[in-house]
Amino acid sequence: MQFEHAIDLLRRLIATPSISRDEAAAAAIVEAELLRWGFEPQRKGNNVWAEAWAHDAGKPTILLDAHLDTVKPNAAWTRDPYAPTIEGDRLYGLGSNDTGGSIAAMFLAFAELATTEQPYNLILLLSAEEEVTGVGGVRAVLQELPPIDFAIVGEPTLLQVAVAEKGLMVLDCTAKGVAGHAAREEGVNAIYKALKDIEWFRSHCFERVSPLLGPVKMTVTGIEAGTQHNVIPSECRFMVDVRVNECYRNEELLSLIRASVECDVQPRSTHLNSSAISLSHPAVERLIAEGCEPFGSPTMSNQAVMPFPTLKFGPGDSARSHTADEYICLGEVEVAAAIYKRVLNNLKIEKLQ
């Protein structure tokens, strides 16, 4: 597969709307492209994957993953988000940076690596529903794949290597009071009860601080209470965004929070855990040797639902994601593809299962 073919694939994907949960047309494009290059793609929902060669159960398995879906274009676009346009080294279009550049680079690396026997099995996955962490995305596919021993998740990292990533919990909290008339000394004001807990969420510092991701960060991001001016509110509801470092699992942190506040705390989910990989992992060591700086990423990716060692690496800049007039630099894609190939060529990793 030539670089020009990869960029043509990327342009076709940009021109094909693929909002989360509506990626069928994009999935058809990558499925056909894999067939064109002699692979045998498989598909579940809008997820498409292929193995580079016949599976060998005695070898470890490496997964390359990049997501097909995009967010909706925002109103600030000055261009047609679905019209791929090249100006100089920049390719403009929705999903070009997040994460079309990684798709193109991974396609190039996958096709090249497939021509040579490697000490591992290799799977390329083009996944759905990443932007909404949907159940029809990676989580639906992992059960269909052989056991994975290591994965590279393609995301815009400025060609640096994310060796840790923050997890997420969204908490719905409810403080209970007793209704009464505001003109009299009666009732128990749920807002006043909530204030104590809100202050705890604002100021509390958990003990374990990550050298890569820093402390756990909790932010109250919404509050709702009261029905009319003369009624003491019996209930105050507020939500909290919790960004979790790799020192805690979400379930553990939830228990600590519930033990510290009076309000009822209900998580919307607990499966979006933080992740981290050792700096001594062979793939990380190779990336560092390539000049890639290890860092901790505050943004989430498919790593959050992958229960095996992962790292995040790819062309582009996370700061361009979800912005108007999104673009990827063609040079970034070419460099990323070359690094993927060099890092993965003859890479020896442990078989975990």
Question: What's this entry about, in short?
Answer:
The protein is α+β, with helices and mostly antiparallel strands. 27% of the residues lie in helices and 24% in strands. The protein has 8 helices and 18 strands.
Question: Main attributes?
Answer:
8 helices; 353 residues; alpha+beta; six-stranded mixed beta sheet; 27% helix
If you had to describe this structure to a student in words, what would you say it looks like?
The protein is 27% helix and 24% strand. By secondary structure, the protein is of the alpha+beta class. Strands 1-2-6-3-7-17 form a 6-stranded mixed beta sheet. Helix 1 packs antiparallel against helix 3. The longest helix is centred in the N-terminal third of the chain and has 18 residues. The two termini are 33 Å apart.
Q: How would you state the average pLDDT, rounded?
A: 97
Low-confidence stretches: none
The oligomeric state of the chains shown is single chain
DSSP helix fraction: 25-40%
Biggest β-sheet description: 6 strands, mixed
- Quantity of strands, as a count: 18
H/E element order: HHEEEEEHEHEEEEHEEEHEEHEEEH
Arrangement of strands in the largest sheet: 1-2-6-3-7-17
Counting DSSP H or I runs of 4 or more residues, the number of helices is 8
Task: Write the topology of this structure.
Blueprint: H1 3-14, H2 24-36, E1 42-44, E2 47-51, E3 61-67, E4 85-87, E5 90-92, H3 96-113, E6 121-127, H4 138-142, E7 150-153, E8 161-165, E9 167-176, E10 180-181, H5 190-203, E11 217-225, E12 231-232, E13 235-244, H6 250-258, E14 264-267, E15 275-276, H7 282-289, E16 294-297, E17 310-312, E18 327-329, H8 330-344
Parallel strand pairs: 3-6, 3-7, 7-17, 8-16
Antiparallel strand pairs: 1-2, 2-6, 4-5, 5-18, 8-15, 9-13, 9-14, 10-12, 11-13
Helix pairs in contact: 1-3, 3-8
